[in-house]
Design a protein that fits this description.
alpha+beta; Beta-galactosidase, Chain A, domain 5; Glycosyltransferase; 5-stranded antiparallel β-sheet; 19 helices; binds beta-D-glucopyranose
């Protein structure tokens, strides 16, 4: 393993926050890692946002940052990955007919009720951290007493949340309600919490009763589960629910210890959650509690610390940017389930109900690289998820009249297209199919996995290439293939022709398929899906002759045919008034710059500057995307303000909708900006090159990277980069400064570039 002292400057607070009542203050004084938000009283208008910011999860389940002793539907939420259920149409209000994403004809059908939309989401399940408290026999809601302070602290290095509420009850007794909670990173079926109520009157009788809160619902009061069984004993409680469409059963059990002293009561609880054939939750929770609440909690903290050290990137920037990036990466880690090839990462993880937990291109195109470069074993599951749903993608292509496999724009567990059916994106946001194929290529390049490409990956690549080939149109007059009638990734222009992002991705997909068709590893798959020589030649021909809009005379790439003729006046643009103009919602043309090094630097820079003036950042992908595109175009000073603002997306609620969930893909894009941009990392199958360009005012960037089963840590500052190879590596890694020949870095050794 690495010698952490030599290379890691990370600050960690080794004191468990509940071990010492003053530890929170200690941490703040020391400027250590926790993110601390203070509130004077409760703030109803901000609780929903804090619910997302203070979320804790482990990819398998997620608990929003609600108050355990104050009912508040906007901040509470408990979701289990993969438990999608059919939901009534009231779940999603119809779009405005003028909205750019609406398909006018489809909207009509749903508006007049002739068709019922098929909508899916995860149910908000009975909440496992809820307590009822009583003081001298009277039920207390701290929010309705004389509340003195309320403070929460998210310990980002431990994935642990604490809360302290201080209030005076009606008899003017001062009371303190302390709690902590965690969702285990060690055993993904477990979560735990401790709740402690103290009263300055030692004779006051205190009662705290834990239980599952079954009054919770999804948005708009829609309840998407049915209770099959529920029971409560002296120190445990169990509940079994099934989702509204009866497709998933979730069994939960909690078991607790109670400690009573004069003027104080403490409850320590372990909750276990089981899906399908998972082991019995009551037995799990009991066994865990026998081992000890503190033991299970400490195991979680150790796993969280190790995981964060092994995966996340640290920057020596201004504190606000560093804090935002750390919070964002914590959320990325909390979004990835482990060892489950049947779920992917929903767009907001499990942090909130925005976009109904659908899986978008954000996962394949933006989040996948983060996981691939830091945790390839688990990243593979994101591809296996797509592979398992390939038949549904084939059916999707046939549905729209094409061949091969068309990855749906939004889907959950079914693999079917689950975008709200009155929108126009389903058959028009085509690039997602190539985004998945690109992820397959990256995985093959970055790992030594002996079976993935030949058993699964190549099938995704061939079938998506077939789809794109069938989606092209031959223009006889211009003697070229074109891709017409698409929705640009920018999403302010959803009726366009020949978008260079889509066309480049499609061409790449087709050419890569033709290339790996020549690889003997793919012979079995080719035979199985009947991909013969004639079809491969046809793919090559389409790839060679697919039109990609070239840069104009000013070295700027047009977003689609005729874009330059749109109105340059971008005042008053909104999603109901944008198609006529040059305003763009988010990076589009520039979003592929880090993939395709053949774009000359001057073209990138001219194009980036042109679109920077026209990009309105209507999407959370936008600020980070502009940071990334600038960084890989050697515009580091231009990139940094986008990076800084992007890092604060959710902590400062930049887009005004953090209450609906965290924008986790944004932080993966920032990670890409730092790694591919500021570090200039270029990892290929034969080795790794670096080209560090440290932003001014930043002292360092440090990150772990996995390559071909080997691990390195890179630490760059203004004097260059130090790369340290893990002592457990099994082979030397070829490493170099960009443009220089490789040097072999042996296991356990260090190299300065
Ligand atoms: C963006 C899409 C993105 C989606 C989910 C939309 O606002 O335009 O590109 O996939 O949000 O993040």
């Amino acid at each position: 393993m690495y010698d952490k002292r030599r290379i890691c400057q990370r600050e960690t607070n080794q004191t468990g926050p509940m071990n010492n009542a003053d530890s929170l203050v200690d941490n703040m004084m020391r400027g250590a890692a926790p993110l601390v938000l203070r509130t004077e009283g409760l703030d109803g208008s901000r609780e929903a946002r804090w619910g997302s910011q203070f979320f804790l999860g482990n990819g398998r389940m997620g608990l929003r940052g609600h108050h355990e002793d104050i009912a508040d539907p906007a901040s509470a939420g408990f979701y289990v990955a993969g438990t999608y259920t059919y939901a009534p149409r009231e779940l999603v209000p119809l779009h405005d007919p003028d909205h750019i994403l609406v398909h006018p004809k489809r909207l009509e059908a749903y508006k007049d009720g002739t068709q019922d939309p098929e909508l899916y989401t995860l149910p908000n399940l009975p909440n496992p951290f809820t307590v009822t408290i009583k003081l001298k026999g009277r039920e207390i809601n701290p929010a309705q007493e004389n509340l003195l302070t309320c403070e929460r602290a998210l310990y980002m290095d431990q994935a642990l949340l604490t809360r302290r509420i201080v209030f005076r009850d009606k008899d003017q007794r001062r009371c303190i309600a302390d709690s902590e909670r965690w969702v285990s990173w060690q055993n993904r079926q477990l979560l735990g919490w401790r709740y402690e109520l103290q009263c300055e009157d030692p004779d006051a009788t205190l009662e705290v009763t834990p239980g599952f809160n079954t009054t919770v619902t999804n948005v708009r009061g829609i309840c998407l589960y049915k209770i099959l069984e529920a029971s409560t004993q002296v120190n445990n409680s169990q509940i079994t629910v099934e989702t509204a469409d009866q497709q998933n059963t979730i069994r939960m059990a909690m078991t607790w210890n109670t400690k009573q002293e004069a003027g104080k009561i403490t409850i320590e609880t372990i909750v276990a959650v089981s899906r399908h054939d998972d082991p019995d939750p009551l037995q799990l929770a009991n066994e865990a509690l026998v081992r000890g609440y503190q033991t299970i909690r400490d195991e979680h903290i150790a796993a969280a610390r190790q995981t964060l050290y092994d995966h996340t990137l640290e920057i020596g920037s201004d504190p606000l940017t560093a804090e935002g990036l750390r919070h964002g990466q914590l959320h990325l880690e909390m979004a990835l389930d482990h060892d489950n090839p049947h779920v992917s990462i929903p767009i907001k993880g499990l942090t909130g109900e925005g976009y109904r937990f659908m899986v978008f291109w954000d996962t394949d195109f933006h989040m996948f690289p983060y996981f691939l470069y830091t945790n390839p074993k688990q990243a593979r599951n994101l591809l296996m998820y797509r592979y398992h749903l390939l038949d549904a993608a084939r059916a999707n292509a046939r549905h729209w009249g094409y061949r091969g496999a068309q990855i749906p724009w939004e889907t959950g567990a079914s693999g079917k297209e689950e975008t709200a059916p009155w929108l126009n994106l389903q058959e028009r946001e085509l690039h997602i199919s190539a985004d998945t194929a690109y992820a397959v290529m990256l995985y093959d390049r970055m790992t030594d996995d002996p079976v993935f490409l030949e058993t699964y990956g190549a099938e995704i690549v061939f079938e998506t290439a077939r789809f794109f080939a069938s989606r092209t149109t031959w223009n006889d007059q211009k003697q070229r293939f074109e891709i017409l009638d698409i929705g640009c990734p920018d999403q302010y222009h959803t009726w366009a022709d020949n978008n260079p992002f889509i066309s480049r991705m499609a061409r790449w997909n087709i050419e890569y398929a033709a290339r790996i068709a020549a690889d003997p590893r793919t012979a079995g798959i080719r035979k199985r899906i009947d991909l013969n020589e004639t079809e491969i030649e046809e793919l090559q021909n389409i790839g060679q002759n697919l039109y990609i809009i070239p840069p104009d005379k000013n070295g700027i790439i047009e977003e689609f045919d005729g874009y330059f003729k749109r109105d340059p006046d971008i005042r008053g643009i909104h999603e109901t008034f944008c198609a006529h103009s040059q305003a763009v919602k988010q990076p589009d043309v520039v979003a592929s710059f880090h993939l395709f090094p053949d774009y000359p630097q001057t073209i990138r820079q001219n194009t980036w500057r042109f679109y920077a003036e026209r990009t309105l950042h209507g999407s959370s992908l936008s600020l980070p995307g502009m940071a990334l595109a600038a960084a890989v175009s050697d515009l580091i000073p231009e990139s940094v303000p986008f990076f800084q603002k992007g890092s604060r997306l959710d902590l400062d609620d930049v887009n005004g909708n953090t209450s609906l969930g965290m924008h986790i893909s944004a932080y993966a894009v920032l990670w890409e900006a730092a790694v591919f941009g500021y570090l200039g990392l270029d990892a290929q199958a034969d080795g790794i090159r670096l080209n560090p360009r440290m932003p001014q005012g930043w002292s360092f960037i440090e990150t772990p990277i996995h390559w071909k089963g080997q691990r390195i840590r890179i630490r760059a500052d203004h004097n260059g980069a130090t790369i340290m190879a893990d002592t457990q590596n099994t082979r030397a890694i070829p490493l170099a400064q960009v443009g220089k020949p490789y040097t072999e870095l042996e296991p356990g050794k260090e190299l300065k570039l």
